[in-house]
Amino acid sequence: MTRILCWLAALLCVPSTMAAESPLNLTPGATEISQQVYDLHMTIFYICCAIGVIVFGAMFYSMWAHRKSKGAVAAKFHESTKVEVIWTIVPFLILVGMAIPATKTLIAMEDPSNSDITIQVTGSQWKWHYKYFDQDIEFFSLLATTQEQIKGAEAKGEHYLLEVDKPLVIPTGKKVRFLMTSDDVIHSWWVPAFAVKKDANPGFINEAWTVVDDPGVYRGQCAELCGKDHGYMPIVVHAVSQDDFDVWVGEQQQAAAAAEAEAQAALTQSLSMEESMALGEQVYIARCAACHQPNGAGLQGVFPSLLKSPYILGDISNHIDIVVNGQEGTAMQAFAGQISAKEIAAVVTYERNAWGNDTGDLIQASDVATFSGGGSAPAQAVEAATEAVEQAADAVVDASEAAVATAGAAVAEATEQAQEALEDMTMEALMAKGEQVYMSQCVACHQPNGQGMPPAFPSLVGSPLIKGDIKDHIDIVLNGKAGTGMMAFGAMLSDTDAAAVVTYERNAWGNDSGELVQPAEIQAIKAGQ
C-alpha cells in the first residue's frame, strides 16, 4: 500500500513541479495582483493533485488488494453514518480552504480605490480609444501590422497582430484605474501580464486596475468575439518611469497643440487632386479597408460596396455627413473625432475618384469644416452662441469703447441665440430626436421595442416610472440609479437630447402619455442640482 501510494504521488506530482516552467501554464505576470492570481491557481492545482493521489490511490489499491483472483469477498453492509459524515465534512473543509485565498484575491482584483491615474478605455470596431482623465490626453490605438503581412504577401513580423501605432503609456509604481466601455458591441480588454480582463459593454462602465513595478512593453488583445476583425484589436502598454511618463505627457500635449494648429492651417490650404488622392488612399487603407475592402467592393450584405454607390455618386454633403457622423444602426462609425478635416476631405475625394468612380470632385478641408457645423438646429444655435460669446469677450479685452459696444451687442445676440436653442420644440421634433438618442444610448439594454430584458433591464412599456411622476423619470435619466445598470446620462446628453429621450419614452410603444419635456426644463433641473 505504501509503495503504491508513493508511486502515485510521484506520478502526479511530477507534472505539478514542472507546471511553473510549462508554456501551457499561467504565467506569474508583471504585477503583484497577477502574482496573487498565479499563486492562487497553483495552490488549487496542488490541492487537486493531492486529491487525485488520495482518490486514485485508494481506488487502485482497492482494485489490487481486493481482486477476485485473491479470493476477496465483498463486505456486506448497507450504510455507515461515520462514512457519510466524513465524506460530507472533508469536501466541505477542502472547499473552505480553497474559498479563503480565492476570496482574498478576488476582492483585491475588484478594488480600484485610491488610484493615481484614471484612463477610460473605449472599444470600437476595431480599435481602442484611450482617454486620460487628469492629463487631458486622448487618442485612438490601431493595429500596426501591415495588410501585406496579413495577406501573406510578406513575412510575418515578430509581433504579428500584436502591434499598434500608438501604445497606451502608464507610469510604473502608480495605481492605474481603467474604466471600460464600448461605443458599439461587446469587447474585452485583456492584458495577461496584468491579470486584467474586463468586458467593455456599450452603455456600461466596468472597472479594473493595475500597478506595474517594472518598466517594459506588455501586450494583449480583445478577448471577445466582436466581429469579423476581432483578431485585429491588439493592446500594447508601455510601462515607463514617472519621469519618462511626465516627458511623454508633455510631448502629447505639445503634439495635440501642434495638430490643432495644423488643422486650423489646413482650412486655408488647397490640395491638388494628386495630393488629395495620395493622402486619401493612405487614410482609406488605414481606416476603411478593413470593412469596405482595399478595392472598395465591400462585403455584400454586411459592408456596402463603394463602387458606383449612390453615396459616392450623389450629393457631396451626404457623403461627408456619413464619414463625419457615421450612420446609426450600422457598423459605420463617426470619424469626426478620429481623423482631421484634411484627412476626411482627402478620403472623401479618394472614394469619389477611385475604382472607376471618376466623379472629378475635389473636396478641401474647408468644405468639411463648413459642413461640420451640421447637426440639430439647437446644437447649431448653441455652438454659434458659444463662438459669438468668445468673439465678444475677445473684443472687450482688446478693443476701444466702440469695440466694447459692439462686443456688448454680440453678447446680447449670443444670449438670444442660446435662448433660441432652448425654445419649445414640437412633439414631432422631440419624438424624432428622442428616437435617435434612444437608439444610440438606450437600446442596448432596453431593446428597440422598449421591452427590456427583465430582471436585469426593466421594460419601459407601461412602466410605473414612465407612467409616473415626470420628475422621477428625468431624475433617473440624468443621475442614474445606484445598484443597477442604469447610468447617469446628465453629463453625456445635451439638454435637448435629455428632453427628447424622456418625451420619446413616455409616448412610444403605446405609452401615449401625451407629455412632452422641453430643453429649458432640463436646464432648470440641472441648475437646481
Automatic annotation (TrEMBL):
Its EC number is 7.1.1.9. Its cofactor is Cu cation. It comes from the Bacteria. Keywords: Copper, Electron transport, Heme, Iron, Membrane, Metal-binding, Respiratory chain, Signal, Translocase, Transmembrane, Transmembrane helix, Transport. Residues 1-19 form the signal peptide. It holds the Pfam family COX2. Residues 114-251 form the Cytochrome oxidase subunit II copper A binding domain. It is a multi-pass membrane protein. It is an enzyme of class 7 (translocase). InterPro entries: CcO_II, CcO_II-like_C, Copper_CuA, Cupredoxin, Cyt_c-like_dom, Cyt_c-like_dom_sf, Cyt_c_oxidase_su2, Cyt_c_oxidase_su2_TM_dom. Binds a copper A center. Residues 18-113 form the Cytochrome oxidase subunit II transmembrane region profile domain. One of its GO terms (molecular function) is oxidoreductase activity. It catalyses: 4 Fe(II)-[cytochrome c] + O2 + 8 H(+)(in) = 4 Fe(III)-[cytochrome c] + 2 H2O + 4 H(+)(out). GO terms for biological process: ATP synthesis coupled electron transport. It is found in: Cell membrane; Membrane. Residues 275-355, 429-509 form the Cytochrome c domain. Belongs to the cytochrome c oxidase subunit 2 family. PANTHER family: CYTOCHROME C OXIDASE SUBUNIT 2, CYTOCHROME C OXIDASE, SUBUNIT II. This is Cytochrome c oxidase subunit 2. The gene is coxB.
